[in-house]
Fold these 2 entries.
Entry 1:
Amino acid sequence: MSTKPFNAFEMAQAQFDRVADILDLDQGTRDLLRNPMREFQFLIPVRMDDGKVRVFRGFRVQHSDARGPSKGGIRFHPHETIDTVRALSMWMTWKCAVADIPLGGGKGGVICDPHHLSQREQEQICRGWVRQVARDVGHVRDVPAPDVMTSGQHMLWMLDEFEAIHGGHYPGFITGKPVGLGGSLGRTEATGYGVVFTVREALRELGIEPKSTTASVQGFGNVAQYAIELYHQMGGKVTCVSCWDQADQTSYTFRKKDGVDLGALMSITDRFGGIDKKKATDLGYEVLPGDAWIEQEVDILMPNAIENQITGENVERIHKRVKLIAEGANGPTTPEADAVIQKRGIFVVPDFLANAGGVTCSYFEQVQCNMNYFWEKDEVLGKLDVKMTSAYHAVSELARKQKLYMRDAAYVVSVSRVAQACRERGWV
Ligand code: NAD
């Protein structure tokens, strides 16, 4: 018996259809929004270091630009498919809309594995990708960014090619650039801080003093570290973090009941967010199985690692004390687990709202580039707080008024904003 392979685009369309029903959207709007507006698929020939030519397949999908230029990353991945890119571009539309930034949704990719490509070969792929779409992207059309296995260096090669083709400086064409070359201060902190801005607002609404709370965090990479930093500044106490151990090919949870020391843990963490087990033991941490983070007696869970972590198998292990789950990672909770969480009445800040700080700061990068004037870090983070706080309240207010689960409310807010833009433009 063959089982149908997972298709992200079918999942994204099913989610959309559910929200379209809640909103009672007309057929024209449904037809427009359940598919990408524009798609590009192309070949990128590259002369490899051995002198032979290899042809790579590239994609750019612009799901919607009803609210502004499309926005979304470019992934380099050996298993990239057009359907994955379509789904991700649709999710970007909803994320930008829920954050209320004037951008649409896009995503791109190249089927390749950078682990097996030299720097020169990667540069040629970047330049080839831009040559294929140079007239269909740019700061007034579609703004790419780094994503899985692409970095600030890749963005600079792409920018350089774009500027060579168009004959001028267009730093707002692409985001995720290094600071000093068009990047924004505060981008490193943005996603983790954004998660905690929403935690702060949720606790306020739940009538809970942050100083009285404890949290367990999955992940110890970029998002988790900055989330912990700001949560500690608010007076909260993280008692547990969990991360992947490359050597053992499994995950571990590191617990200190009187609170983890962020700086000390960071000093024994590699650049992939893996904590050294032996050194952690020496520092007095208990080393527990990887999934122990989920069953801790804490007030808040922050799954800030990867997708598919709170599942039908482990959701019942969430402690009865937990009142709030803030999803820093993309897709950490499966639909099966989500139904249980909803039934138990645990308050959830869903992923595309909780982690929207990243794209919001990328939007700030674009704005600064277009002005050619760069803000101080405090200004960036202050503006980020304002955007995240108002994004949170738009969703929670709707959830309260219409008695919706927070995840549904977030979808309803974003889909209705995009649908409204389509209507007001006279498209539907
Ligand atoms: P990262 O690579 O810096 O860190 C990932 C962390 O997760 C590492 O500590 C790693 O050890 C841990 N991890 C991996 N697999 C694990 C497992 N099975 N169990 C426990 N821990 C595990 O990544 P990041 O940038 O912090 O991103 C984390 C999540 O947030 C991802 O889902 C990403 O898509 C999402 N996200 C990130 C940003 C951003 O700006 N960085 C923006 C939006 C969403």
Note: The two ends are 43 Å apart (CA to CA).
Entry 2:
Amino acid sequence: MLITFEGIDGAGKSTQIAKLVHFLTNEGVDVLTLREPGGTPAAEKIRAILLDNAHKVTPVGELLLFSASRAELVQEVIKPALQEGKTVILDRFFDSTTAYQGYGRGIDLVLLQSVISIATCGITPDITFYLDLAPEEALKRKFAKSSIPLAFEREELDRMERSGVEFYQKVRHGYLEILRQNPDRFVSFDALQPVGTLHQQITATLKERSLF
Ligand code: TYD
């Protein structure tokens, strides 16, 4: 079983994943949690290139690097874990590529789809939880955690996060398009809801669909 989480940076995926792992483990489910990009030694090195502010990366370069990291993780970790009957919970998968590199950076969606197919070997999540949040709210959340004045905040942001609010608006629009095109797999929740309410909605959805 493959469960993925999607949403713009700051939507609260990590918090919900931690709560879900705790819940499923208590239910006796054998869970493996992973995040993209990264997850194998080679993929972690690719992650460092992708997020490092010292590099400029072109949109196509970005697509191929995210896909290279994914190919490593799928072959080395995800495929074997699914074959062993584990429940894999993934913080981002190919929908991030469609939203960020496709809708965000403007790469042709048909070309992008073939790169995704190569990297994933056709593996598709059983369910994807999308936490919907406006980019302005995501920024507020990020800045609320820090006492450093706003002007210096940018120093804290990684290469992707420096792409700006307009980029994130395109990414969010992309996610909403993916939702429209995949109404069965893609389950959307308002990320502004309290953490506990969101967790209950996520576990209720899994129960309803007999996914654990
Ligand atoms: P990360 O620090 O893991 O962010 P988050 O906690 O929000 O998941 O950084 C991953 C960044 O890479 C994030 O900005 C989303 C972006 N990304 C893509 O642009 N394309 C992709 O295919 C993936 C997997 C991530």
Note: The pocket of thymidine-5'-diphosphate is lined by residues 9, 35-37, 51, 66, 91-92, 96-97, 100-101, 160 (CB under 6 Å).
